[in-house]
Design a protein that fits this description.
Shape of chain A: globular
Order of helices and strands of chain A: HHHHHHHHH
Largest interface: A-B, 69 and 50 residues
Number of helices of chain B: 11
Radius of gyration of chain A: 18 Å
Oligomer: heterodimer
Mean pLDDT of chain A: 81
Helix content of chain B: 40-55%
Distance between the termini of chain A: 48 Å
C-alpha cells in the first residue's frame, strides 16, 4: 500500500492504518530500535509505542511523502529516550559507540544544556548536511540516522571500511566546526 | 549538550536526506542485479576490498608489485652480468683482443661490434642491483638511458606498511608534550630503519584537543620543524565545498626517533597511506588530493 493511502487510513481513524504501517515499515523500525537498545524485546515495545505516537500525531501531521522518516524519527527518539533513562543499558548497545562519536562534534567543556532548542540543532545539522556531497551525506545518514554498522555501510555502498571511517571522521570534524560557528559550543 | 542530544537531533534533520539515503540503497540494490549503470562497477571494486566474492582482488596490487619486482630482478641479473665488463672497460678494450672469439658471438677479430647504446641501459639497472644488494628498498641510484648511474641518488619513501588501518575510534587524544607513533609507522621504521624515508602525516593536539593543520599554530610548527632539517609538506584536499589541510613530514627513521615536539602541543604521527585508507588504490581521496609544497 502506498504511503499516501496509509496516511488516509490514519485520517479516517481506521485501525488498519497501524496494521498497514507495521507490514510496510515494522521491520525497518524494529531494526533501528534494536540497534539503539540492543534488545529485540525492547525494540518491539518501542515499535508499538511508535505506532501509538503516530496514531496521535496523524492528523494533524500529514506525512504522505515521508512516512518512513516520520515514523523513524519517532522510533529513534523513543529508543534514545529509553536508553537515557536506563544509562547502564547503553553500555551494551551500539548507542554507546555512536554517542561517543557524536561527542567528538561537541565541546567537552561548558554545556549549553537547556538553552538549545532541539529543532534548531536539527536545522543546524541539516544545513551542514546540505553542504556535504550526496555520497558523504548518505553515509552519514546511514550511520547516525539508521544506526548501521560500518561493515553494513561498506556492504551497501561498496566502500572499504577505512574509506567509510575516514569519511565519517572528516564529517564529524566538519560538523564540530559547523556547530561551533553556529554557536552551539562555548 | 551530550552525545545523546546530538544523536537525537540527527533524527530531526530534513526528511529528504533520509529518503535520499533509502533511495541510494535501492539504486545500489538495482546495480547489484545488473540493471543499473556502469558506475556500480566502480563501487563494486571497492566492495571487493572488503572481502566476499571478489576478495581475492585485494591481492592484485601485491601481485602487480611482485611482478614488477621480479621483472626488475631479472633485468638486474642480466645487467649485473654485463656490468662485470662495465661500459668503460668494454670500450677501452676495443681492439686489444680482450674479448676473445667464442666468448661472445658478436666479437670479430677481438673487437666488439655492438652498439654501445645497447649496453648502457643494462648497466644502469646493474648499478641499481649492485647498490641495493638485493634489497629493493635500500638506497640506490636512479638513472635514465645514457645517464650517469651515480648522478641521481634516491632514498625510497615509505607511505604504507602492513595491514594496520587508521583507527578512528574517536578517543584519540595526545596530551601536551606527548608524541604518538602509529603501529604501522613503528613497524616500518623497525623493518627499514634508515634505508628509507617515511611519509608521515602529523596531527596536532593542544590540551588533548586536535587542532587544525591549516591554522597558525600548525604553520609555525611546520616552520620550526623545517628549520630543524625536516622536509615538511603542507597539503590540501578540496572536497568540492572547502579545503582540508594536512601537515606531513618526509623524515628518516633517525629524525623520527629524535622527534621533539613543542611543549604546548601533542603529536600523533601516522604513515600517510595508513591515514588515508589502505593503499590508496581506488581511493578517490588519493585521486583528489592536490598537493602543495
Amino acid at each position: 500500500m502506498e504511503d499516501s493511502e496509509i496516511v488516509d487510513l490514519y485520517f479516517a481513524r481506521e485501525e488498519s492504518a497501524i496494521l498497514q504501517t507495521a507490514q510496510k515499515y515494522g521491520s525497518g523500525l524494529r531494526k533501528i530500535a534494536n540497534a539503539i537498545l540492543g534488545s529485540m524485546e525492547l525494540a518491539e515495545e518501542c515499535e508499538n509505542d511508535t505506532y501509538l505516537r503516530a496514531w496521535n500525531l496523524i492528523p494533524p501531521n500529514e506525512p504522505r511523502t515521508y512516512l518512513f522518516p516520520f515514523l523513524g524519527k519517532i522510533t529513534r527518539h523513543l529508543a534514545i529516550d529509553e536508553c537515557r533513562k536506563h544509562a547502564a543499558q547503553k553500555r551494551k548497545a551500539i548507542l554507546c559507540e555512536l554517542t561517543k562519536e557524536m561527542e567528538e562534534c561537541i565541546s567537552g567543556g561548558s554545556s549549553v544544556e537547556g538553552t538549545i532548542q532541539a529543532g534548531a540543532l536539527s536545522q543546524a545539522i541539516s544545513a551542514f548536511l546540505g553542504k556535504c556531497p550526496e555520497e558523504q551525506r548518505n553515509v552519514f545518514m546511514r550511520r547516525y540516522w539508521f544506526f548501521d554498522s560500518i561493515p553494513e555501510i561498506c556492504q551497501r555502498y561498496g566502500y572499504s571500511q577505512s574509506k567509510v571511517k575516514t569519511m565519517l571522521f572528516r564529517m564529524r570534524e566538519e560538523l564540530r566546526k559547523h556547530l561551533e560557528k553556529e554557536g552551539y559550543v562555548i | 549538550m551530550s552525545g545523546y542530544e546530538l544523536l537525537d537531533a540527527v533524527g530531526g534533520v530534513d526528511f529528504q536526506y533520509v529518503m535520499d539515503a533509502v533511495e541510494s540503497m535501492e539504486k545500489e540494490a538495482a546495480a547489484e542485479v545488473g540493471t543499473v549503470k556502469a558506475g556500480a562497477r566502480e563501487r563494486k571494486r571497492g566492495a571487493e576490498k572488503t572481502g566476499g566474492k571478489y576478495g581475492w582482488m585485494r591481492f592484485a596490487p601485491v601481485a602487480a608489485c611482485l611482478c614488477l619486482g621480479l621483472g626488475l630482478f631479472a633485468l638486474w641479473g642480466s645487467g649485473a652480468t654485463e656490468s662485470h665488463n662495465g661500459p668503460g672497460e668494454e670500450w677501452q678494450g676495443l681492439g686489444d683482443g680482450k674479448y676473445g672469439a667464442g666468448e661472445d658471438s658478436s666479437v670479430v677479430d677481438g673487437s666488439r661490434t655492438e652498439d654501445p647504446n645497447a649496453e648502457s641501459s643494462a648497466v644502469s639497472f646493474g648499478s641499481l642491483g649492485q647498490e641495493t644488494d638485493g634489497n629493493q628498498i635500500a638506497q640506490g641510484a636512479i638513472d635514465w638511458i645514457g645517464g650517469d648511474p651515480d648522478q641521481f641518488p634516491y632514498t625510497p619513501m615509505i607511505s604504507i606498511y602492513g595491514e594496520s588501518g587508521f583507527d578512528f575510534s574517536g578517543d584519540m587524544a595526545v596530551m601536551n608534550g606527548g608524541v604518538f607513533f602509529s603501529e604501522a609507522l613503528t613497524g616500518a621504521m623497525a623493518e627499514y630503519g634508515d634505508a628509507a624515508k617515511y611519509r608521515v602525516l602529523v596531527e596536532l593536539f593542544c590540551d588533548g584537543v586536535q587542532i587544525s593543520s591549516g591554522g597558525e599554530v600548525a604553520r609555525s610548527e611546520m616552520e620550526r620543524l623545517g628549520d630543524e632539517g625536516y622536509t615538511v609538506a603542507f597539503e590540501t584536499y578540496y572536497d568540492g565545498a572547502e579545503n582540508h589541510y594536512y601537515f606531513t613530514l618526509h623524515a628518516t627513521a633517525k629524525q623520527l626517533e629524535a622527534f621533539e615536539g613543542s611543549a604546548g602541543l601533542g603529536y600523533a604521527l601516522w604513515l600517510y597511506g595508513e591515514y588515508f585508507g589502505g593503499t590508496g588504490l581506488n581511493d578517490e581521496y588519493f585521486g583528489e588530493m592536490g598537493i602543495r609544497y
